[in-house]
């Protein structure tokens, strides 16, 4: 039986929140009760009770939803599946079953122990499989292995049929194939409650990870230097996306506002061969951005620091400095993946407020875009803003996956995540204005479709946005579904699946698939 | 707006008196309850709220898709639903509150969206204590309960009741006990949700 936390329960205040403290927007928007389910049968029973009581169900696995999709549900019921967190081997050799409440950090650890396998998923330990996988599932191994839904072969999901009855079904390529495709990136929250993900096989874990980083101090930054860094970063992936030698690589350029952050370039090289694999590549790549000083100039303690920590000197001020060659850390894969993950704590206990936006880029940055970014990141109005520019391409860009998943963005080299975090509600307007201002400016250059200024509408330069980086501001565009689902057959298909598998539109939120009129 | 003499029919007056609670019949015009000699008429097709003072149309307020209306308990605020299928990009209708000036003019206080899926609202009712307001939408399948602010303007949606099937109700009002009556069914706030009560 599900454990119920209602409004009279001392736990309700925390349990009815998500990770983003902006939601629920007010106490009135809270659900009437949270129900913690521990099995698929529990989900069926709890969901049926909610329907019979006339309550809107929303579903939570980890509570990391960026927008108001889950906890803004006045008088509704929140089905929490975070305790459905098993990671097990499947019925056939090499297969695995992951429940929606399994935290990614636990998934990596269990797959490591069970079979040395891996999902090419994300880098936040406490994000769980439910939302992460059904929305796509990008991570540091994406260039080598594609995204997590590319490996997904079956989904167990509780839907509500035309008769209003909750039922557990299994969707795969042979059974409910359209639903299965929809669940490979189109998010479970549109169609029902996912209770398990099936993977007939998963790729092997890398043996070791090479990690390196460079960072720059805004105090030593000039416009010219900034433009060179940003355009060099994009140009490299523009030229090398299809180069298999770069498939083991993940890079991210993280640019914080000049008043509150630094500029950092990090990379992971996933070694599947010997210890020398990729080391030359790492040096050559980092040399594009920074030339090391001669070894002879190294301070006396530099070599010892490199042996101890294997990373560049990171002074409180100034750019990082290297001598001889760029320092590189070699880490056991599971250690690098599990220990290096961010995020912790019980959802709802976090009082951090946040806002996110996203963009897929098919080409590197133009000089005009880099200049706009410089202007924005040196503006007081964007204080606290962070832009993470990830190198997701390579095997992600397998055109065959357009037709059998719900992730149509298969021609991009970079995925951008705009992020802003703050604590006080009084700062909401300032922070929201800042991120919106930057985003609008970035997609108002000649690279953007002039019919949709302010949006990365799909064209020769952009491929829209990522639905798991949910951004309700996009609703202001009448073409918002095209931003997320592309210009092809996907959105009509998702609408058809919605009509067939959620005929009463019970599973809805501000950015859910709209039923066909 | 040119003033013109207005002579309501007996049928129209009765509809107006009945309230304002029930303004959803499929007709182009309906009346809010009489208060201080002022009545209001919704022109659904034209998108107007007309105020009629002692039989004369005195003022017309433009309103998008006005679909149902009800007075606040003090008769100084008029709540009007908008029959949108989409509001600010969301699949929802909306509701506005207007302050009623002594001369019959309306001053809009607030407009806000109803809950997701509460599209094309068609019925509205206010509780006897004046602290809650109910709206029926989506062909009777979605009920919204909203709070009323200290200023008697409409507040947030505080609960939603979803029915898988439904039809346009014939009766939509609060009874003396504060229960929402939708045809033969009664609803009340119970443990944070809008629950069906009784048989």
Overall description:
The complex is a heterodimer of chains A (517) and B (199). By secondary structure, chain A is of the alpha+beta class. Chain A folds into 4 domains: 3-80, 2-Layer Sandwich (Uridine Diphospho-n-acetylenolpyruvylglucosamine Reductase, domain 2), CATH 3.30.43; 87-204 and 496-501, Uridine Diphospho-n-acetylenolpyruvylglucosamine Reductase, domain 3 (2-Layer Sandwich); 208-256 and 263-335, no CATH class; 353-484, Vanillyl-alcohol Oxidase, Chain A, domain 3. Chain A has 15 helices and 16 strands. Chain A has helices spanning 12-15, 40-53, 104-115, 129-134, 142-145, 177-183, 223-240, 279-287, 302-309, 333-339, 367-377, 400-404, 428-442, 480-485, 490-501; strands at 3-6, 33-36, 57-60, 77-80, 87-89, 96-98, 154-160, 166-172, 193-199, 208-216, 249-256, 263-271, 329-332, 353-361, 385-390, 414-422. The longest helix of chain A is centred in the middle third of the chain and has 18 residues, at 223-240. In chain B, the strands form 4 sheets. Chain B has a 5-stranded antiparallel beta sheet with strand order 1-5-4-3-2. In chain B, strands 6-7-8-9 form a 4-stranded antiparallel beta sheet, with no helix packed on it. Chain B is mostly beta strands. Chain B has one helix at 10-18, and strands spanning 4-5, 29-31, 38-43, 48-53, 56-62, 66-71, 77-82, 94-100, 106-113, 123-126, 132-137, 142-148, 154-162, 172-174, 180-182, 185-190, 193-197. Chain B has one domain (4-197): YVTN repeat-like/Quinoprotein amine dehydrogenase (Methylamine Dehydrogenase, Chain H, 7 Propeller), CATH 2.130.10.10. Residues 1-28 of chain B have low confidence and may be disordered. The radius of gyration of chain B is 16 Å and the shape is globular. In chain B, strand 2 (29-31) and strand 3 form a beta hairpin. Classes of the chains: A alpha+beta (517), B mainly beta (199). The A-B interface holds A 6-8, 26, 28-33, 51, 53-56, 74-76, 164, 475-476, 480, 504-506, 508-510, 514 and B 88-91, 115-117, 143, 145, 147, 155-164, 191-196.
């Amino acid at each position: 039986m599900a454990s119920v936390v209602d409004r009279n329960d001392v736990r309700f205040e925390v349990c009815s929140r998500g990770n983003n403290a902006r939601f629920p927007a007010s106490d009135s928007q809270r659900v009437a009760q949270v129900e913690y389910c521990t099995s698929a049968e529990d989900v069926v029973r709890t969901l049926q009770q909610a329907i019979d009581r006339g309550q809107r169900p929303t579903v939570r696995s980890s509570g990391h939803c960026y927008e108001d999709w889950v906890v803004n549900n006045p008088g509704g019921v929140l089905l929490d599946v975070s305790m459905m967190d098993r990671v097990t081997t499947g019925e056939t050799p090499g297969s695995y079953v992951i429940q929606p409440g399994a935290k990614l950090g636990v998934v990596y650890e269990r797959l490591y122990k069970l079979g040395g396998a891996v999902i090419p998923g994300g880098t936040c330990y406490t994000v769980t499989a439910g939302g992460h996988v059904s929305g796509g599932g990008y991570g540091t191994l994406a260039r080598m292995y594609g995204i997590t839904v590319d490996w997904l072969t079956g989904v167990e999901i509780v839907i509500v049929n035309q008769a209003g009855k909750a039922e557990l079904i299994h969707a795969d390529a042979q059974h409910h194939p359209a639903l299965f495709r929809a669940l490979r990136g189109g998010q479970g929250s549109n169609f029902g409650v996912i209770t398990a993900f099936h993977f007939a096989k998963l790729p092997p874990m890398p043996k070791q990870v090479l990690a390196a980083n460079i960072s720059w101090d805004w105090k030593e930054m000039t416009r010219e230097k900034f433009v060179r860094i940003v355009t060099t970063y994009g140009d490299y992936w523009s030229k090398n996306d299809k180069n298999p030698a770069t498939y083991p690589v993940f890079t991210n350029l993280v640019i914080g506002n000049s008043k509150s952050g630094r500029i950092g370039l990090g990379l992971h090289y996933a070694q599947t061969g010997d210890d020398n694999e990729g080391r030359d590549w790492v040096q050559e790549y980092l040399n594009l951005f920074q030339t090391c000083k001669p070894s002879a100039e190294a301070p006396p303690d530099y070599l010892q620091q490199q042996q101890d920590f294997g990373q560049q000197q990171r002074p409180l001020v100034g750019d990082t400095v290297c001598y001889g060659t760029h320092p590189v850390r070699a880490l056991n894969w599971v250690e690098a993946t599990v220990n290096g993950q961010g995020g912790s704590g019980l959802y709802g206990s976090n009082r951090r407020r946040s806002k996110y936006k996203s963009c897929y880029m098919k080409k590197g940055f133009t000089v005009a875009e880099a200049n706009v970014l410089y202007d924005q990141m040196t503006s007081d109005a964007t204080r606290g803003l962070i832009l993470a520019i990830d190198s997701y391409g390579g095997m992600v860009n397998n055109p065959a996956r357009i037709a059998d998943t719900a992730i149509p963005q298969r021609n991009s080299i970079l995925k951008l995540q705009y992020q802003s975090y703050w604590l006080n509600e009084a700062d909401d307007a300032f922070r929201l204005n800042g991120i919106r201002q930057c985003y609008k400016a970035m997609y108002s250059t000649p690279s953007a479709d002039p019919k949709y200024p302010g949006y990365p509408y799909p064209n020769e330069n952009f491929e829209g946005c990522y639905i798991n980086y949910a951004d309700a501001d996009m609703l202001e565009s009448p073409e918002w579904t095209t931003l997320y689902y592309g210009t092809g057959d996907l959105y009509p298909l998702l609408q058809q699946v919605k009509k067939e598998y959620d005929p009463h539109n019970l599973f809805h939120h501000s950015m859910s698939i709209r039923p066909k009129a | 707006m040119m003033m013109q003499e207005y002579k309501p029919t007996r049928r129209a007056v009765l509809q107006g008196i009945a309230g304002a609670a029930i303004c959803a019949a499929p007709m182009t015009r309906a009346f809010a309850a009489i208060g201080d000699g002022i009545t209001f008429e919704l022109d659904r097709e034209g998108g107007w709220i007309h105020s009629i003072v002692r039989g004369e149309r005195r003022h017309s307020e433009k309103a998008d898709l006005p679909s149902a209306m009800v007075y606040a308990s003090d008769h100084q605020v008029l709540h009007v639903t908008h029959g949108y299928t989409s509001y600010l990009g969301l699949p929802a209708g909306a509701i506005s509150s207007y302050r009623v000036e002594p001369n019959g003019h309306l001053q809009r206080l607030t407009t806000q969206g109803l809950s997701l899926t509460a599209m094309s609202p068609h019925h509205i009712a206010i509780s006897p204590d004046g602290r809650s307001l109910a709206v029926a939408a989506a062909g009777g399948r979605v009920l919204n309960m909203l709070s009323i602010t200290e200023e008697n303007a409409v507040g947030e949606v505080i609960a939603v009741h979803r029915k898988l099937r439904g039809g346009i109700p014939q009766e939509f009002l609060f009874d003396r006990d504060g229960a929402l009556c939708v045809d033969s069914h009664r609803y009340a706030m119970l443990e944070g949700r809008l629950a069906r009560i009784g048989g």
